[in-house]
């Protein structure tokens, strides 16, 4: 497994000192070759033995082995810059790096979400009387599109773009209804309160957030996670969107496979839409 992905996957179970080391490695992977274990320890204000033990706990022989593995994983393809229209751009970006990074995000996202979690999400959506969907920021468009897909399957799905309206819907929800909350950071206090309210109804809560510690995950019955990391601030949101879309697509396919009645409704609704558009 990619060492950076392994660190992200195991971060939640680490001690406070181990999380400090993990966060430093994740945020400075490209610069790690310039740090010895002693320098890393000094930068974090911890003992050198803590760095060594951290490396060994991840399955490496020591810090040099971990550092080399991370450097190989973080090294971009191509090292020379190319100038285009007066701008300096990296050739790996020009030659399809974005496609590769999206593929990596989808692959890492698939690795950290066990099939059993996705199957569980599909099962609760299939049984729900109503599915409430809410997305923050750019996730709102993904939530809206998924609500439309669920409706085509004959599942009553309501997309909300206002937390007040969502609160009203939650108070009217019934046992077994589902709230799907999409939030990259998962830290909005209002959304966390609504997730807690939904579980008190009692309903089910499915969260989709980045693979980081966040309160929304704690309020979810099942937390789906997205791995999307890039040092370029303008690229990382694109990778996150690709990861979220991959998860939603997998759940949708599970709702179709082996469910003849759902699939029949989907095909019938598609035909109705074609008729309306003609």
UniProtKB/TrEMBL annotation:
Residues 87-109 have a biased composition (Basic and acidic residues). InterPro entries: Homeodomain-like_sf, HTH_RpiR, RpiR-like, RpiR-like_SIS, SIS_dom, SIS_dom_sf, WH-like_DNA-bd_sf. Gene3D superfamilies: Glucose-6-phosphate isomerase like protein, domain 1 (3.40.50.10490), Winged helix-like DNA-binding domain superfamily/Winged helix DNA-binding domain (1.10.10.10). Keywords: DNA-binding, Transcription, Transcription regulation. GO terms for molecular function: DNA binding. It comes from the Bacteria. The keyword Coiled coil does not apply. Residues 121-257 form the SIS domain. The keyword Secreted does not apply. Residues 1-77 form the HTH rpiR-type domain. This is DNA-binding transcriptional regulator. It comes from Lysobacter helvus.
């Amino acid at each position: 497994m990619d060492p950076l992905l392994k660190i992200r996957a195991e971060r939640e179970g680490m001690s406070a000192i181990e999380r400090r080391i993990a966060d430093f490695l994740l945020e400075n992977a490209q610069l790690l070759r310039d740090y010895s274990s002693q320098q890393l320890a000094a930068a974090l204000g911890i003992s050198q033995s803590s760095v060594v033990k951290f490396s060994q706990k991840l399955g490496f022989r020591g810090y040099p082995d971990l550092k080399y593995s991370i450097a190989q994983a973080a090294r971009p393809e191509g090292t020379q810059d190319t100038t285009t229209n007066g701008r300096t751009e990296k050739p790996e970006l020009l030659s399809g790096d974005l496609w590769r990074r999206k593929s990596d995000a989808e692959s890492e996202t698939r690795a950290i979400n066990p099939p059993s979690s996705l199957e569980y999400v599909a099962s609760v959506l299939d049984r729900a009387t109503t599915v409430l969907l809410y997305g923050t920021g750019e996730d709102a468009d993904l939530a809206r599109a998924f609500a439309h897909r669920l409706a085509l399957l004959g599942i009553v799905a309501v997309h909300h773009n206002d937390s007040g309206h969502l609160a009203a819907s939650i108070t009217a929800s019934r046992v077994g209804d589902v709230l799907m909350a999409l939030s990259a950071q998962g830290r909005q206090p209002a959304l966390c309160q609504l997730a807690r309210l939904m579980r008190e109804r009692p309903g089910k809560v499915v969260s989709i957030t980045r693979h980081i510690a966040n309160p929304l995950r704690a309020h979810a019955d099942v937390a789906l996670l997205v791995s999307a990391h890039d040092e370029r601030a303008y690229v990382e949101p694109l990778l996150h969107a690709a990861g979220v879309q991959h998860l939603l697509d997998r759940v949708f396919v599970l709702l179709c496979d082996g469910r003849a009645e759902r699939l029949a409704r989907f095909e019938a609704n598609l035909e109705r839409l074609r008729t309306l558009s003609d």
